[in-house]
Amino acid sequence: MSSVDFEEAGHKLVEIKLEPGQEMELCIMLFECCCQERTYLRYYGLLGQRFCMMNKIHQENFEKCFVQQYSMIHRLETNKLRNVAKFFAHLPGTDALPWHVLAYIRLTEEDTTSSSRIFIKILFQELSEHLGIRQLNERLSDPTMQDYFDSIFPKDNLRNSRFSINFFTAVGLGGITESLREYVKSNAPCLIV
């Protein structure tokens, strides 16, 4: 924290000699420091981004952190939850973390809790703010990445599809559900049967 900026802090952290297999400790430390802040500091997102882009191992470790944190999101208080969501929105938003991490999120009424819904809301609002709604929609509509987003925009049954549409509309991001709306409109009779 005594560093002038994230680049100096990153340089100091790189100079720490870690034994092979200890890279995860660096990711956890960075993530925990971010969680402890009163408000989200972009400083931590930039540090995480720098490490992800420097070494594939760090990228994989942050992906593991994402999975672990999302599975335990119901244990976090609101402030930490907000910091976690903003931190993890920064990484895919800057392409430091691959977008396939979003495949771990399953947005249905049964699979989410109030905490996970808050997390998803903040995550996507941050992505929208960072990329813009048009670019976010383009990313989410990319045919090569559709398998990663099927759990967020489910097409398995009408109830889950409507839940996703209503969720994103309620949080002010209804624009990213246009393709799901079209799917529901054209397949609603089939899905009901």
What do the pLDDT scores average to? 88
The stretches of 5 or more residues where confidence is low (pLDDT under 50) are none
Helix content: 55-70%
Number of helices: 10
Q: Give the SSE order as H and E letters.
A: HHHHHHHHHH
Sheet bearing the most strands, described?
Answer: none
Oligomer: single chain
* Count of distinct strands: 0
Shape: elongated
| Cα-atom radius of gyration | 18 Å
| SS strand fraction | under 5%
Description:
With 193 residues, the protein is mainly alpha-helical. The longest helix has 18 residues, at 114-131. Helix 2 (23-36) crosses helix 5 (78-93). The chain has ten helices and no strands. Helix content is 66%, strand content 0%. The mean pLDDT is 88. The chain is elongated.
What structural keywords apply?
193 residues; elongated
SSE inventory with pairings:
Blueprint (H helix, E strand, L loop, with lengths): L5 H9 L8 H14 L5 H13 L1 H16 L6 H16 L20 H18 L1 H9 L4 H4 L8 H13 L7 H15 L1
Concise account of the structure shown:
With 193 residues, the protein is an all-alpha fold.
